[in-house]
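Lab notebook, bench 4. Still working through the backlog of constructs that have no structural model yet. Next entry is a single chain of 121 residues. Request: give me the structure tokens for it.
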Amino acid sequence: MKDLRSRLFDFAVRFIKFLRTLPVNTENKVIRYQLTKSSSSSGANYEEAQAASSKADFIFKTELALKEMRESNYWLRLIESIQEGNNIDVMELHFLQSESDELKKILASIIKKTKDHLTGS
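Model written out:
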């Protein structure tokens, strides 16, 4: 089983490769830009969390990673809605949606467990 850091990195790489397949037009330019940022930022923030100076700092950086993953998930849903009829890799899109859902759940669980441990719950 891959560790979370590897999954987040692989997610960003697959995402960027997928974005290259979208038709070239004005709206996809915006989507490409936003998704490149959010999909890669999630992993970068989690990577930073690994060197956090405190539990609170770890939670903060992991929460940022979760927010970025949620944003990526939003953009994926938007792509699915507006790309109907375009020649896109639907199987890859669905994989990315599923992976972003799983990654959101993992990040949220890490945050909850860390907060619970911090408060002694």
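Notes after review: DSSP finds four helices and no strands in the chain. The chain has one domain: 4-119. Flag for follow-up if needed.
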